[in-house]
Amino acid sequence: HCLMAKRPKHDSQILEDRRRLFTWVFALKAWGEARALMDILAQLKPPPRNKNHVALCRAIVNAYCRPFTRSDYGNPLGPEIVPEEFKDLHSAMLSIRHKGTAHTDGNPEFVAAGRPLNAVYIEVKPDGNRLKVIITGSKFTLDEGALIKIGRLMGELAKKSEYYVKRIRERYKREWPQDVGHFMLNVNDDTGPMWLRTGPPRSWGGS
Questions:
Q1: Burial of 29 per CB tally in 10 Å (0-12, 13-18, 19+)
Q2: 7, 102, 178, 189 — which has fewest CB within 10 A?
Q3: What's the confidence (pLDDT) of residue 62?
Q4: Among the listed residues 93, 73, 70, 72, the one whose alpha carbon sits nearest the alpha carbon of residue 157
Q5: For residue 22, what are the contacts with CB-CB under 8 A and spacing of at least 6?
């Protein structure tokens, strides 16, 4: 049984398996990006609360949470996949993502760590004989202990994801492409081939 949130509609087994594969592979890629961002943070060593430190921490949270949020093609992963010892961390990461790093709902949420993550602040400082007002947003950061724990959590989740990818790949091994080229997983039509030929990846140039 696949540890994923249920879809509201009924798909064929073939389409359901393809969408499960989509989600598991998508998850592995997202957590790989989060690890790469953690490596960059470790290499740069920006001062805590520096804008580069804040930007990387926000990106890490968003990358980690991506497989657990809504997708038009795959089911989002459910909380059941998260090991018990990491449940609180996982819930906190999702809350941070929903309230502060990916969306702002305009309703500041107070957290145990301190002031709200999704509010606008001002700092009033003396500037000679006048007062200087600096407008800022929330500066969310992750300390070294949190980063280590997030890394361990993603390692556990990756093991589960790789297991399910292997299972689905084995089940449909005869449908894997036998030609050289680039192919896209077909998650829309269970009467068509599992893999659709496509062009090579390109960088997006906005044109």
A1: middle
A2: 178
A3: 92
A4: 93
A5: 71, 73, 74, 185, 187
**Number of separate helices (H) and strands (E) present in the chain:** 4, 4
The three-class DSSP label of residue 141 is coil
> Which H helix or E strand runs over 92?
helix 87-96
The pLDDT of 16-20, averaged and rounded, is 91
In angstroms, rounded to a whole number, what is the distance separating the alpha carbons of residues 76 and 20?
9
Element (H, E) at 127: strand 120-127
- Under 8 Å between Cβ of 76 and 5: yes
Token pair for 129: 């004989």
Contact 56, 40 (CB under 8 A): yes
Res 96: pLDDT: 82
In this predicted structure, the answer to whether residue 199 has a pLDDT above a threshold of 80 is yes
Q: Determine the Cα–Cα distance for residues 172 and 14; give it in Å rounded to an integer.
A: 9
* N residues, the chain: 207
Pairing, β 130-137 against β 182-185: unpaired
- Sign of CA pseudo-dihedral 51, 141, 69, 24: positive
Non-local (6+) Cβ contacts of 79 within 8 A are 68, 87, 90, 91
If we measure between CA atoms, which residue out of 145, 144, 183, 197 comes closest to residue 25?
Answer: 183
